[in-house]
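Recap from last week: sequence in, structure out.
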Amino acid sequence: MRKKRNHTSIKEVLIHNILLPLTFVVTVLLIILPFMGYDLMAIASNVSEKPITFIQNTFAAELEDEIEEAPDFERKAKDQEKEIYRLTKVVEEQKSELAQYKTETEKLKQEIEQDLKDREEREQKQQNLATMYEGMTPSKSAAIIEKLTLNEAALLLDKMGSTEQAAILGKMNSAVAADITIALRDLDKAEQPEVAAMQERLTLLMNAIERKDSSIAVEDLAKQISEMEEKKAAGILEAMSGDKEEKKVGIGILSALDESKRTLILAEMDESVSSNYVAELAN
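Predicted structure tokens:
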């Protein structure tokens, strides 16, 4: 009869061939080594402490690296703070410049609007005068307009219709009518006909002062100056400050102006000229 074959599992092989012999060897060593002078407790303690020491050394090295890198982090942080401060300052300066630009733009806008308003008012006054003269007989209108300067007469006639212009010019002295006709033609070429008219009036006043028989009131000039833009009026009075006699007239005009208008005109002048006028007015 054939015998049955015994089958041995892997588990049994491991236990019988490896674990049992290894356990036996370890047991024998534990018994023999103390007799041979080995301190098993010290050896066990040393073996157990090595992983802990390794871990401690590793963390200590990392900590030292972090400590060494700390100054760099602080320096970078300070640099970033400085950069943030600089950028913040730049933004604040730009905001300030923008606010200033906005203020200046608004001021310029108001000046332009006021300039347009003043121009419209002057043109309306001239139109009203022209309408009034159109309501007169041509001979009466001609007699009055002949006493005006060429530019003043041209500005006034320019606001009238061509029929009224022809009727009034026909009643004037032929030489005067010819000069006014030329002035009318040149109005389109003049950049500032109103200023030219004012300068003509001032020239007449200068001549009258030299003759000592002026029939032109300084108040009339002050009125015309008050109706002009401050910048233009300041330019005329600045030009007058260069001559002694004309400067006296300029002082008279400024004295006749109301305080608010005088202040605005002086503010548009060169500082040296305005301070000179102020000193003369104080005397």
